[in-house]
Design a protein that fits this description.
The chain is mainly alpha-helical. A hairpin with a 2-residue loop joins β1 and β2. α11 runs antiparallel to α12. The protein starts with a helix and ends in a 6-residue tail after the last helix.
């Protein structure tokens, strides 16, 4: 299953690595990718930062708050940078609960008190959860499944399953469990990219404009008990990003006629 998607993805990934990532150099490519990823991942949760706003904050810090953006949004974005930097700096960390909790702690550390004063960043929720139009299950039963999710995901990687398939499967089930009081979406997208980056793959960036399709794919897991739609969405999104950036480079390499 997904042989066709895997082949297309791998063919484009090799071309993308040669024409985009390698030509930029790892440091510049990672900075570029982080800004895109952070802007869209936080926007999916309601943050109003644009990509340009995110770049300014990343480069100049809290001393330069973009016009029209709230301090809470700036703090949320800064926390996301810290979580991302931790993830990239610890790609050798076991894929376990300690990693999951630390990423969630970092991504919610300075904003959780505004949203849930009684909760502790990086600790599992102590009450049942709801988000949007979804009411999640008994939090204690869902949290009890987290250790097995982390272990089985690592085993799937060790067994040689494709990283994109594993990242999608992990992400879908993790969001189903929804174990933290806040930051589940951002944490889930960060850890999905941990899987990909550790395997040497580009970041998966779910753009704000694809939010509806993304949420729909997640809901199908609950409605139908199948993650095929989410896996397909992951492949389509990853392939789309690489194709778009290569097309941009080609277009911007063409000569401009001034007269």
């Amino acid at each position: 299953m997904f042989e066709k998607e895997i082949k297309e993805y791998e063919d484009i990934r090799r071309e993308y690595q040669e024409k985009i990532a390698d030509r930029m150099g790892r440091e510049q490519w990672m900075e570029y990718s982080e800004i895109l990823f952070s802007a869209h991942s936080c926007a999916i949760e309601g943050n109003s930062f644009t990509v340009d706003d995110t770049r300014i904050l990343r480069e100049q810090g809290m001393a330069m708050i973009p016009v029209g953006r709230s301090l809470l949004e700036c703090t949320e974005m800064s926390d996301h940078f810290r979580a991302f930097d931790y993830m990239v700096g610890h790609l050798d960390h076991p894929f376990d609960e300690a990693l999951l909790k630390e990423v969630n702690r970092l991504v919610t550390e300075h904003t959780l008190s505004y949203r849930a004063p009684e909760a502790i960043a990086g600790e599992y929720t102590t009450e049942d959860m709801a988000a949007g139009d979804t009411v999640f299950g008994d939090h204690e039963k869902l949290i009890a499944r987290v250790p097995n999710l982390m272990t089985s995901t690592q085993k799937a990687l060790d067994d040689g399953q494709h990283p994109m398939v594993v990242a999608a499967k992990w992400h879908g089930y993790y969001e189903y469990l929804h174990p933290f009081r806040d930051g589940n979406g951002r944490t889930g997208r960060l850890l999905s990219n941990f899987i990909l980056l550790r395997a040497g793959h580009p970041l998966l960036i779910v753009k704000l404009e694809d939010r509806s399709a993304y949420i729909s794919a997640l809901k199908q897991i609950r409605a139908e008990g199948s993650d095929e739609c989410l896996i397909s969405f992951f492949f389509k999104t990853a392939i789309g990003r690489m194709k778009d950036e290569m097309a941009q480079k080609h277009k911007n390499s063409l000569p401009i006629v001034f007269f």
